[in-house]
Specification:
The protein is α+β, with helices and mostly antiparallel strands. The chain folds into 5 domains: 52 residues, no CATH class; 89 residues, no CATH class; 69 residues, no CATH class; 98 residues; 87 residues, no CATH class. Helices cover 23% and strands 27% of the residues. The protein contains 8 helices and 28 strands. The strands form 9 sheets. It has a 6-stranded antiparallel beta sheet with strand order 7-3-4-6-1-8, with no helix packed on it. A 4-stranded mixed beta sheet has the order 9-10-11-23. The protein starts with 6 loop residues before the first helix and ends with a strand. The relative contact order is 0.09.
């Protein structure tokens, strides 16, 4: 077993060996022979040190810093950098505007420093709009100017514009939802924990592998705007070979983006006899929207098929449609002349459908792979399985609390902080997590100046299904 030896031990062994095997007797500090032995012992000590470093860096369980980065690069893992929080704001005008008023980006807003966090500045990532006759703008996405967990801010805490908005003198702003997704750079311990999870999931077909691969995926619009970022994921098996991966959006918008083909897509202009598998140009598709039209040579009427038709098997995750046995006049006929599965030779097939874009579409591409981008999206799931990516159902939670202040504290000064801390708790719950009433009361009681809290709603714990997520929209937590 390797044991590192140090300078003093090495030097003492050298001195004893020379003393026993030579007539030399002067080994005092400063003597010629001792100086020569010290030089050799220093080199040996350095060699032992380098070997110890090599052994430590060889295992990711003991490597640290850049050594840990180099070791885990062998597993295609990189340390997660710090990330800024994401959210949205609404700009409020003191009076209704007379016409549509643009709010140019970037607009800087900020949250004042508190005992819990420093001042945080955020900027809008796209232009906003104040509709004519309104006093509140449409929601505008924002991102913190610096990364870090401290940029996660509770709803209602961003209230300041760093500079006025042209055409909206006296305007203010607010964040109707908490900013989220901000995190510090991954520590060595967190990186090691993720590496252990990753290595256990290397077969790729495991739930942990699919969940881990989805986390951190971002989706962008063509304009460059961030549409969403996966903060966590949970895989649920529905039946053998078919599962649903529920993803959480760090922006808390859960925007299900889809696009519909206004002009039917030509899937095949002239099918070869017996063609069974058709690949649509876009995926994942919204299954119920698929409409397939088949025009077979020599047949005057076209054949219209829709999702759910027994002649079609649709893999909505990859956009592959498998054709079964069609009606007799459109069917492919085998060598004996009997109808068989597939298209007749020369058939023209067009399709109309809607397909997922945004965060759902991007995660689906990561898992399934993209034939048009095999290097950037090689795929992750096992062949022969279907994994559908979906957002969970949002379970809105209403909370009503009666707050009793301590002596010397005004009730009005406590209502906002109590509502904010409860909102932050509910909006931070993971998929399927129960809303615990005792936790709500404890958090409210923890606000400085609160003497007692009575919960009017909910009256007990709120059970949340495994495909649901609890959320508290702005205004759903009322403290009085």
């Amino acid at each position: 077993m390797f044991r590192r030896r140090v300078f003093a031990e090495i030097l003492q062994d050298m001195v004893e060996h020379v003393r026993l095997n030579t007539p030399l007797t002067d080994f005092r500090v400063g003597s010629v022979i001792r100086t020569l032995l010290e030089a050799a012992a220093l080199e040996d000590d350095e060699a032992y040190f380098q070997m110890a470093q090599l052994l430590r860096d060889f295992s990711f369980t003991s490597a640290t810093g850049s050594g840990l980065d180099r070791r885990l690069a062998d597993f295609d893992l990189a340390r997660e950098p710090a990330q800024p929080a994401l959210g949205e704001i609404v700009v409020n005008a003191p009076r209704p505007v007379l016409r549509d008023t643009p709010i140019p980006a970037p607009l800087t807003v900020y949250c004042d420093a508190t005992p819990d966090h420093p001042r945080v500045e955020l900027v809008t990532t796209r232009n906003g709009l104040m509709p004519a006759g309104a006093t509140a703008s449409l929601p505008i996405p924002i991102v913190a100017t610096v990364p870090g967990a401290h940029t996660n801010i509770a709803a209602g805490q961003i209230a300041f514009l760093r500079s006025p908005v042209p055409g909206l003198e006296g305007a203010t702003c607010e964040n109707p939802i908490s900013t989220s997704g901000g995190r510090d750079a991954e520590t060595d311990d967190d990186f090691r924990a993720r590496a252990r999870w990753h290595i256990r999931a290397l077969p790729r077909a495991t739930p942990q592998a699919l969940e881990g691969k989805a986390i951190g995926v971002r989706a962008f619009a063509a304009s460059g705007d961030l549409l969403g970022q996966v903060s966590s994921a949970l895989l649920r098996e529905e039946r053998p070979g078919e599962s649903t991966l529920f993803i959480l959006d760090a922006t808390n918008r859960f925007a299900v983006s889809t696009e519909t083909l206004l002009v039917p897509e030509t899937v095949t202009a002239a099918a070869t006899p017996g063609t069974r598998h058709l690949r649509l140009a876009h995926a994942p598709i919204v299954p119920a929207t698929l409409r397939l039209t088949i025009r077979s040579p020599g047949v005057p009427a076209t054949l219209a098929l829709a999702a759910g038709d027994p002649a079609l098997d649709i893999d909505d995750t990859t956009g592959v449609v498998t054709v079964g046995v069609l009606p007799a006049d459109h069917a492919f006929r085998d060598a004996s002349g009997r109808p068989a599965a597939g298209l007749a030779g020369g058939a023209l097939v067009t399709a109309g459908y809607a397909y997922f874009t945004g965060l759902i579409g991007e995660v689906q591409r990561v898992l399934n792979g993209d034939p048009l981008d095999p290097i950037g999206h090689p795929g992750w799931k096992a062949a022969g399985t279907r994994v559908r990516v979906r957002f969970p159902a949002i379970r809105e939670i209403g909370v009503r609390l009666i707050v009793t202040p301590r002596e010397g504290h005004a009730r009005e000064d406590l209502l906002g902080p109590v509502a904010a801390v409860v909102e932050q708790y509910i909006n931070g719950l993971p998929l399927g997590a129960e809303v615990v009433l005792a936790r709500i009361v404890a958090l409210a009681m923890g606000v400085p100046g609160v003497f007692d809290v009575t919960a009017l709603a909910p009256t007990g714990n709120v059970a949340v299904l495994e495909d649901e997520i609890a959320r508290a929209p702005r205004g759903s937590v009322v403290a009085s």
